[in-house]
Structure formats: C-alpha cells, structure tokens
Amino acid sequence: MKQIQNLPLALTLALVLLGSAVVYFLYDGVQDETSAQRLSQGEAQPAIHRMICASPSITEIVFSLGAGSRVVGVSAFSFYPPEAQAVTQIGGQINPNRERILSLEPDLVIIQGRHQMLDRFCREQGIPILSVEIDRIEHITSAIQRIGEVLDAETAAEHLATGIRQQLADLARKTQSRPPRSVFLGLGHTPGDLTGLMTTGSGTFLHELIELAGGRNIFADAPGTYPRISKEALVRRRPDVIIEVLAEGISPDNQVLLKADWERLATLPAVQAGRIHFLTDDYLLIPGVRIAQTAKRLAAAIHPELFEERHD
Questions:
Q1: What confidence tens digit (pLDDT) does each residue in 222-266 have?
Q2: I want to staple 74 with a disulfide (CB 3.0 to 4.6 A). Which of 78, 103, 164, 233 is the partner?
Q3: Which domains does the chain have, with CATH numbers?
C-alpha cells in the first residue's frame, strides 16, 4: 500500500472500524426488518450479476470465491488480487462517489460493518446492500460463508473458510511450543518522533493474531480498540518484541531513522535483544482471506527460531 500517505487514514480505510458486533443485513430499499429476516431463513434470493465491494476485505473475499467477474466496483485500496486493480474504484468508505455507484448499476453493494451514509444512500436508491462485520478472526470466516450464501458459492466459501481455520490452527500448535513473548505492535510513527504512538487493544483481529503467533499484547488492557499510547507507558511495559506495521511502505532512509528512534530506548528488552521489526507487507492491516499469512508474518517476528531452516 505504498499509495497510502497517512497511517491513521489507512487504518480507517483498511480495517473499517465500525463496531464490534457480528451483524448481517440485506436491504431491498425498504426500511424494515422483514427482508433481513427472510434472508436469514434461507429463502430464495435473486441472482447477483453486478456487485460493488466497498472495502478491501470484501474485495479479497469475493474474488477468492470465484465471483470476481461479477464485480463492477471496488473501494479504494483494493489491490488484491491484482485483477481487482482493473475494476472501477468508487472511493473509500468515508468518501464514496455516489454518482459513480449509480452509474455502475449494481444489484448488490457489500459493505464492512455499519456504514450509515452508504447504507442510507443505497436504501434511498433501492440498491440491495449486504453488511458483514469483520473485526475478529471468527468474523472473517463467518463473513466468507455469509457472502458465499448470497453469491450462491457455498461450496467455495466452506472450502476457503476451512482452509483458513486449518492454517491458523497449525500455526497456533507451532507457537504454543514456546513461552509467549510480550509484544508492542506499533501502527506506524513519524520518524524522529515517538509521541502519539498507535497500537491495538483487545477485541481486534490484530490482537488475536499476536496471541496466536506466540505473543502477549502489552496493551491488551488499554481502553479503545486502536488506542494512542505514550512513550512513557510503553517504557513501563517493557516489551520483548517491537513490531511496527508500515503497510504504506518505508524508504531505506526512513528505516534508519525509525530504528534510531527505538535505539534511544535502550532499557527496553526488545531493543537490547535486537527484536525490532518493520513489516511492510500490504496485507497486514486487512482482515481478509490472507489472515493466515499475517499470522505467520507476526509469528516469524515474535519467534524467529521456529522458522529458521535446520541443516542437520
């Protein structure tokens, strides 16, 4: 995601932090509950031929279910799979292009979480809308299966969800063989300045992945989902591992500056042991079908000894 210039904005667009409950909706342009209830009871649904995926996570899921040919619009930052980049963009979740949405004549818009503005617009225009929550790991596989139902791709959805669960279970068994290491997961900071650091609290897929990867989130008890914390609070909690996620990329010069920032905190166990990692993979902040890759990437930073090649 080298196009992303502002990390808090990247989090807003990639994670779509819009609530924590797992709720599914499908509206047919009428503001009542009956349509959602009928769908939940498994009654017949109209075939979907032209859909818009209004978050990167949704784009990943729909294409992975083999329904990419029916996608006529995607949100900003939908870079995976590569063929999604050729699809018309409708803007981000916080600034969708309404005229473009109408011009694409969708018969379904799929959104992540509760997006009141887009939801209201679609209902006003009579465009069916499906909303899925993807805050936690279990939400991801549930969303895959729900979307599979709506797109008549249940078999593909079950296979995809099962594969993700298996990969995560395999990794968890591997990391459980090591004592957990305390981890600070930083969501980027300005080179030369360690103020206003952002991290993850509990209740997020990133927090869950830290623990699954053999770590212990040192700010699991912090209020808020993605809290800002002080340098002083970080120093008091003495992480064994520091991981900074920089999904917008990092230049060699900035990496030197960022590393120098952390080296000034020489009392931290992570600094003393050289366990400072800068991760720039574009999928790390997206709670989608590549969640197992994110888990393995974190595990390799937390417990690199588990992934070192053996030469017997």
A1: 998 999 999 999 999 999 999 999 987 888 888 888 999 999 999
A2: 78
A3: 7-169 (3.40.50.1980), 178-306 (3.40.50.1980)
